[in-house]
Amino acid sequence: MTTAIDGGCLCGDIRYTVSTDALEVASCHCRQCQQSCGAPVLTWVNFPREAFEYTVGSPAVFASSAKAVREHCGRCGTQLVFRSLENTDTIDVTANSLDQPERFPPEYHIWFDERVSWMRYDDGLPRYAGDAPDD
């Protein structure tokens, strides 16, 4: 039986729950993720979209491209979700907005060619120049 996975923003205005296990976990190095979170890498946990729901509050939505929107707390700015407008079956949740992010270690790196040069990675995980090979 799957245990609910909960998370939310820094200030507590937004909470969410996911009612199923993660599909995959990837650390993204693309420039958009870097700029949106203010860090060199952003780890995403991928879930079936129908298993995700906001339980407290409503996020602000930003169309970061013609293909996707990013959802964040309008008060504290915590980035919460990436929703592809093309793949509507899944949703990506920021790992560190989860209450227990340590449960979701990354499985691979994506957009690794866009990484910042001063970060070093010795985790031995697969690295992909662009998106994951199955996408």
> Helical percent range?
under 10%
> Which structural class fits the helix and strand makeup?
mainly beta
N→C terminal distance? 28 Å
Please, what is the average pLDDT?
93
Structure notes:
The chain is mainly β and about 140 residues long. The chain has one helix at about 30-35, and strands at about 5-10, 15-20, 25-30, 40-50, 50-55, 60-65, 70, 80-85, 90-95, 110. The chain has a seven-stranded mixed beta sheet. It is globular. The mean pLDDT is about 95.
Task: Put the structure in a nutshell.
With 135 residues, the chain is mainly beta. Helices cover 5% and strands 37% of the residues.
Topology:
Elements: E1 5-8, E2 15-18, E3 24-28, H1 31-37, E4 42-48, E5 52-56, E6 60-65, E7 68-72, E8 79-84, E9 90-94, E10 108-110
Parallel strand pairs: 3-10
Antiparallel strand pairs: 1-2, 2-5, 3-4, 4-9, 6-7, 7-8, 8-9
Short key terms for the protein model shown above:
135 residues, mainly beta, 7-stranded mixed beta sheet, 3-stranded antiparallel beta sheet, 1 helix, 10 strands, 5% helix
